Amino acid sequence: MRRKIVAGNWKMNTTPAEGAELAKAVAAGKKEICDCVNFIVCPPYTHLSEVVRITRGTGVAVGAQDCATEEKGAFTGEVSARMIASLGVEYVILGHSERRQYYGETSETLNRKMRQAYANGLTPIYCVGEKLEEREDGRHFDVVKAQLEEVIYHLTPEQFERLIVAYEPVWAIGTGKTATADQAQEMHAHIRRTLAAKFGATAEQTPILYGGSCKPSNAGELFAKEDVDGGLIGGAALEADSFLQIGKAFLK
Ligand code: 13P
């Protein structure tokens, strides 16, 4: 049985005070939901310490949205994996399409970030996904395969065992357009096959999350698919109720 995971990527939203309220509401609501669903919240760096404190012992885990490529030193504005891990944060999102697109992150950058994440005990949530024109040209499977081969294939088998992957078609992020459940399943199966080609049967255990306008109204249909193991949620994770509803979609 693969883990079922609902992760909230808050992106650059909420003040620390608003984030604390949101974390409290998620932690309170989580109590009503079976431990079979793993909840992760990923607030901005400035909120991490407080959100870790609020969620401790509640079954809600905390992730960061990024980390630095380097271990430490003269890198103004960067936050290292070690700093993040030392707060009690367990996860880190890496390779989000917004980082690739707006901050020029490449596979080379991401290999370095992955090394830092693993060296400091963080579990990466590695994002892949094609742009609209790549899907329209029929290149979506190749694009996602390359994003996996260029980064994930460099992991050791032990590192791979801890990995979480998120498929986020860029055209579905924040647009209200969702991949259909069949489109998601087709890509998730492709991702699992690509991972299995390198890591064998271990890939059967890798949680593969769907992201891109996932909300309470479509989560049930998406999560019912064999290779969809949960969601990486943007907008709908900014309201505790809708985020919790998405988690409950597993239980229907
Ligand atoms: P939305 O759910 O707002 O489309 O964002 C998805 C996402 O990018 C999560 O990382």
UniProtKB/TrEMBL annotation:
EC number: 5.3.1.1
UniProt-listed InterPro entries: Aldolase_TIM, TIM_sf, TrioseP_Isoase_bac/euk, Triosephosphate_isomerase, Triosephosphate_isomerase_AS
Keywords attached to this entry: Cytoplasm, Gluconeogenesis, Glycolysis, Isomerase
Pfam families, per the entry: TIM (PF00121)
A single GO BP: glycerol catabolic process
Superkingdom field: Bacteria
Pathway assignment: Carbohydrate biosynthesis; gluconeogenesis; Carbohydrate degradation; glycolysis; D-glyceraldehyde 3-phosphate from glycerone phosphate: step 1/1
Active site: 96 (electrophile), 168 (proton acceptor)
Record localization: Cytoplasm
GO CC annotation, single: cytosol
UniProt xrefs under CDD domains: TIM
Residues annotated for substrate binding in this entry: 9-11, 174, 213, 234-235
NCBIfam families in the cross-refs: tim
Subunit structure: Homodimer.
Protein family membership: Belongs to the triosephosphate isomerase family.
Protein name per the record: Triosephosphate isomerase
